[in-house]
Design brief:
The complex is a heterotrimer of chains A (303), B (274) and C (365).
Chain A lengths: L17 H21 L1 H10 L16 H8 L1 H31 L7 H13 L2 H12 L5 H10 L11 H29 L3 H10 L3 H29 L3 H7 L10 H11 L3 H29 L1
Chain B lengths: L1 H33 L3 H4 L14 H8 L4 H30 L4 H12 L3 H15 L5 H25 L3 H10 L3 H12 L1 H17 L2 H6 L7 H6 L6 H24 L4 H5 L7
Chain C lengths: L3 E10 L2 E11 L4 E5 L6 H9 L6 E6 L2 E2 L10 E4 L11 H11 L4 H15 L14 H13 L5 E5 L7 H18 L2 E6 L2 H7 L2 E6 L2 E6 L1 H6 L4 H6 L6 E7 L3 E4 L3 E4 L10 E7 L4 E3 L10 E11 L3 E8 L2 E8 L9 E6 L5 E3 L6 E3 L7
Parallel strand pairs in C: 3-8, 3-9, 6-7, 7-8
Antiparallel strand pairs in C: 1-2, 1-4, 4-5, 9-10, 11-12, 11-14, 12-13, 14-20, 15-19, 16-17, 16-19, 17-18, 20-21
The chains are: A mainly alpha (303), B mainly alpha (274), C alpha+beta (365).
């Protein structure tokens, strides 16, 4: 019955045959488009950052790391960076905590809950540009209702020059951002909390664990992976904030609310300091890529 | 017990209504201003309700031709979404079924979504200027497609993976090619996810500002860019901001309210299965 | 109708060497069952035959044609899946017709074929229903219908009855047997259930860890297994294995139970073996005859009554054994029963290697 077995046959198929070939064909167009936008600009920026292009100049001279040195010494860059990180450091925890409180409030199944949730989500789906515009209208010290409302609460008329005074401008941006993106956190945490294993919670209740304990020991670890992604997404979005700031203050007054993105826009598209901006772009891309890859790897491991 | 429960319920509803009111107030404000006559807008302190609601501001948008920007937004966001959905679904299918590129490809694609647009826009701007793509439909569509792709691929990955492999295998044995299987078997099964992804991808492009700002001048401006041009202290500008914002936002609200159930998965990049 | 030839098939699956050099020659029209425990590679092998997996080494020939590099649709095969794989948004008619549409068959011909198939399977009344409206058994028939309507030369079944409840399984088993008799196609059937294997197969291929342990007609594997693994896999309840000492004509369990061997065992001196005897080959002895050395007195420990049979658990020489006896009043725990082994049906197994040394196996590897 048994034929003499032929020696081990290694299939002599070419690399692109069969399923693998089909897979490559399917993936190629999308990757091509993404590379066009992802790789080319980076390479170009690297090349240009080592030159001295500015204005309408078509070709530049090689000046090595001069731009990078200038960047490190530029106080305005550090100021913009600092402001951006400060915004991030304040807004993110706020969005997280408010989102969490809202999500916990809506953990109960009640009629109309879906309606409420759908309404709360609305700020997150409008254009950030529109959000900025709305708050520009809201915060106007003469014609906006915000000051009016504060006046009612404190009992005396308040005139806060939200978009005019530097300190207040920062808070204005903060308010707009938190208003728009807390619903984002809320929606994610709502679903994440709902997915926590009911049986674990019930077991804890039977064991007599207090509310805080249950939260920190059971709930928090369970939603950590989702929380991680949400925080990562928001952190990156906050870092490159542009639309709302542009509409509220244009980076002003002066450049007191200039974030990194605004800075790059002004230097690149108003002063046309091509190479200088390119250097900043390169540094930014490298740092962000590293940070994201590290964060993703850590989360993949946790997953 | 019943009374305590009823009280708890009442409090819950009270809090909920308060929260919703506070959150939606600015949106109400925007709509409300769009219905105010320009002179009334600049009253201090502002009235919370227009004395005579009127659509004059909207009319102005039409008369001044500003409405054209909405059309541009529609074409650009629409086409780029369609292209991204086609290319992205193909790519996602290969990643899920053929494991093309393994984990590395998947992570690279996700990281693409994280690229800050500002870092990319500069060289693109110069390249577009050189190739004559600035201020044109194809230019912006290409860019929006490229930015929608990582999102589409990541989301469709999840939805396609939910389709049982055996259905596709049965079709393969029955005599269909991979493309035919994808089109005739997998896509109909994943239709809901497909629609949800398309809607969210469309939303991102519809709301996009930075690229549009930089890459359009006069021909092809989208509605967020149009709004940004109303920056100043004229009351007509405020009226236009409000009206244009309302027009740009209303479609979003309508669509999203129809698709509530996909909200969670769409917004969170599929991190959470709502 | 085609034959199937597998030569030295290797397949790595998820880092594991799932199929390690399998050779199979299956003549046309035969019903072959691939059976074995989980992870033995039977499903992987089937999927390789179907073309759903690409082999890492070896060659597959269907009907004399080398199809190793061909796509599933070029192999002229039909397949029935474990979970039926019916398209939920199509009617039963469309489900069955789906494959024919791929071949661009004209509608009239499609209709004819579908009607033929559904008549054979008695599902003609269900044509307009959706899969979700059907019961498990009906879905299974539709899946089979989809396979036979294609008139392929090779039929593959991937554990099709696993998702059905026990009674339905018995019914469908018979249906499949009838199908094979009517259509006379070459069929390859994968299952982990040894009853399906025994009842359906013209030939059984027992796989273990990616290698063919033994292949042959069901009764050959049952009565003349090559190894302990084969002996234990087929038959329910499992074959009893008892440590014993064997020499040329006798085998001795403990020190006081000596049983005669009908054939020469070829063993010269006393050798430690495992004595294998199936529960069904143990029966009640008549009155104890001093000359009847095969009769043994035992004490029942547990009794499981299945209706007409009683599975009696007892100890012999410190080993737990089960006997499948006719139900009787003496089948009560704690009772004494006299039993005897059918020595024509025993086997001796080498404890170290697991190879059956007596009786010699009827089939080659």
């Amino acid at each position: 019955m048994t034929a003499a077995s032929p020696t081990y046959i290694k299939t002599g198929r070419p690399f692109w045959a069969g399923r693998r070939g089909t897979g490559i064909a399917f993936v190629a167009p999308a990757i091509f488009v993404m590379l066009l936008v992802g790789l080319f600009p980076f390479l170009w920026s690297v090349a240009v950052s080592f030159q001295d292009l500015a204005g309408a100049k078509q070709s530049g001279n090689w000046i090595g790391l001069a731009n990078y040195k200038k960047l490190i010494a530029d106080a305005r860059v550090w100021a913009a960076l600092g402001r951006t990180l400060l915004l991030l450091a304040v807004a993110l925890p706020l969005e997280l905590i408010l989102g969490l409180l809202l999500a916990m409030h809506f953990q109960i199944e009640r009629p109309l809950k879906r309606l409420f949730v759908a309404l709360i989500v609305l700020p997150a789906v409008i254009s950030p540009m529109v959000a900025g515009s709305i708050w520009r209208l809201m915060l106007d010290h003469k014609f906006g209702p915000f000051n009016q409302i504060i006046g009612w609460i404190t009992g005396e008329p308040i005139v806060l020059l939200w978009v005019i005074k530097p300190h207040l401008a920062f808070w204005a941006i903060l308010i707009a951002e938190v208003w728009q993106w807390t619903p984002f956190m809320f929606i994610i945490l709502l679903a994440a909390l709902a997915n926590v294993d009911r049986e674990q919670l019930e077991a804890a209740e039977i064991d007599g664990a207090g509310r805080f304990r249950v939260f920190f020991r059971i709930v928090l670890p369970a939603i950590m992976p989702v929380l991680g992604i949400a925080v990562l997404i928001r952190a990156l979005d906050l870092f490159r904030i542009f639309d709302a700031v542009w509409q509220l203050t244009r980076g002003g007054p002066g450049n007191k609310t200039e974030t990194i993105s605004i800075f790059m826009y002004i230097r690149g598209f108003q002063s046309f300091e091509t190479s200088y901006t390119a250097a900043l772009v390169v540094i930014l891309l490298i740092v962000l890529s590293l940070a994201v890859t590290l964060a993703l790897k850590r989360m993949e491991i946790a997953r | 017990m019943n009374r305590r429960y009823a009280l708890g319920e009442a409090i819950w509803y009270g809090v909920s209504i308060l929260v919703v009111a506070v959150i939606l107030f600015p949106i109400y404000w925007m709509f409300m201003i769009s219905l105010k006559a320009p002179e009334e807008i600049f009253k201090s302190p502002p009235a919370w309700f227009p004395s005579q609601p009127q659509f004059g501001n909207y009319a102005a948008l039409f008369l001044d031709g500003d409405v054209w920007s909405l059309w541009n937004s529609l074409v650009i966001a629409g086409l780029s979404t369609v292209i991204a959905m086609i290319l992205g679904t193909l790519c996602a299918y290969a990643i899920v079924r053929f494991r093309t590129g393994g984990d590395n490809l998947a992570i690279w694609i996700l990281s693409q979504r994280m690229i800050p647009p500002i870092a990319v826009v500069f060289p693109i701007f110069l390249a577009y200027a050189a190739f004559g793509l600035a201020d044109s439909y194809p230019g912006l569509i290409l860019l929006y497609t490229a930015f929608a792709l990582p999102y589409v691929i990541w989301m469709m990955r999840g939805y396609l993976a939910d389709v049982p492999v055996e259905l596709e295998e049965a079709a393969l044995v029955d005599g269909y090619s991979h493309i035919e299987v994808l089109w005739k078997v997998t896509v109909p099964m994943a239709r809901n996810g497909l629609i949800a992804t398309a809607i969210f991808a469309f939303l991102f492009s519809w709301n996009e500002f930075l690229f549009a700002l930089i890459l359009t001048r006069t021909e092809v401006i989208t509605y967020p860019v149009q709004i940004s041009q109303y920056f100043g202290s004229q009351s007509t500008f405020w009226a236009k901001i409000a009206a244009m914002s309302a027009l740009g936002t209303l479609p979003v609200f309508i669509v999203v309210s129809m698709l509530q159930r996909y909200l969670v998965r769409g917004i969170s990049l599929g991190a959470v299965k709502g | 109708m085609s034959d199937l030839k597998l030569s030295n098939i290797h397949k790595f699956y998820g880092g594991v060497h799932a199929v390690k050099g399998v050779d199979l020659d299956i003549p046309s029209g035969e019903f072959t069952v691939l059976v074995g425990p989980s992870g033995c590679g039977k499903s992987t092998l089937l999927r390789c035959i179907a073309g759903l997996e690409e082999v890492d080494g070896g060659q597959i020939d269907i009907g004399g044609k080398n199809v190793t590099d061909s796509r599933p649709r070029d192999r002229d095969i039909a397949m029935v899946f474990q979970s039926y794989a019916l398209y939920p948004y199509m009617s039963v008619y469309e489900n069955i017709a789906f494959g024919l549409r791929a071949r661009k068959m004209p509608d009239a011909q499609i209709k004819r074929r579908v009607m033929q198939a559904t008549e054979m399977l008695n599902i003609g009344a269900l044509l307009q229903r959706r899969p979700r409206e059907l019961s498990g058994g009906q879905r299974q028939r539709v899946a089979i219908g989809r396979a036979i309507v294609r008139d392929a030369s090779l039929f593959l079944f991937d554990e099709p009855l696993s998702n059905l409840d026990a009674q339905l399984r018995d019914e469908m088993r018979l249906e499949i047997k009838k199908l094979h008799q009517e259509l006379k196609r070459t069929m390859i059937y994968v299952t982990h259930d040894q009853i399906e294997a025994m009842t359906l197969a013209d030939r059984i291929v027992l796989l273990r860890d990616g290698v063919v342990e033994q292949l042959g007609a069901p009764l050959d594997l049952f009565n003349r297994p090559k190894s302990r693994f084969v002996a234990e896999f087929l038959g329910s309840p499992k074959v009893n294995l008892v440590p014993a000492m064997a020499s040329n004509g006798v085998v001795r369990i403990d020190s006081d139970i000596t049983l005669p061997l009908p054939m020469s065992s070829g063993l010269i001196k006393a050798t430690p073996v495992l004595l294998g005897i199936r529960p069904q080959n143990i029966s009640r002895a008549g009155s104890v005859n001093k000359n009847d050395r095969a009769a043994i007195e035992i004490v029942t420990e547990f009794v499981q009554i299945t209706g007409t049979r009683a599975l009696v658990t007892f100890s012999l020489g410190g080993n737990s054994m089960i006997a499948d006896l006719e139900v009787g009043a003496d089948c009560v725990p704690g009772n004494d029963i006299k039993i005897k082994f059918d020595m024509n049906r025993t086997m001796l197994i080498d404890p170290q290697s697991g190879i059956v040394i007596y009786p010699p196996s009827a089939t080659a590897s």
